[in-house]
Amino acid sequence: MKRFIQSTHDIELINLLETDYELYHFTETVKDNMLYFDHQIKTGPLKTRNAVKILELMNFPAGITKEAGLLSERIFELSNKSHLSKWFNNQNQKDKALEK
Fold first, then answer.
1. Please, which contacts does 75-81 make with residues 24 or more away whose CB atoms are closer than 8 Å?
2. What is the pLDDT of residue 35?
3. Which residues contact residue 43 at a Cβ distance below 8 angstroms, ignoring those fewer than 6 apart?
4. 26 and 39 in contact (C-beta within 8 Å)?
5. pLDDT-wise least confident of 10-14, 36-40, 65-69, 82-86
6. Whole-structure pTM over 0.70, yes or no?
7. Which of 5, 36, 87, 99 is 20 to 30 A away from residue 27, measured at CA?
8. If we measure between CA atoms, which residue out of 3, 53, 54 comes closest to residue 24?
């Protein structure tokens, strides 16, 4: 087993690493509008996502956090690499169509 530390929330990267590496994670909680990490190493991939919550705690506009949350959920659903690639290609095509 190869040994190194990689810190990421990138679902696609986690999917690539999990076949050759042991995965570990930290968890966090939100209490009184503060983000707390327990700093306890747990086995397996991270099962939660906190990026949108961090945006909310930093008072980003609701429209941004809502869209980010929806995108995050969709990406999480499509965490299979081939589905992710297909999804990103579709998003790029939609963005290009909107630019016209």
1. 75/11, 76/11, 76/49, 79/11, 79/12, 79/15, 80/15, 81/12, 81/15, 81/16
2. 85
3. 22, 23, 24
4. yes
5. 82-86
6. no
7. 87
8. 3
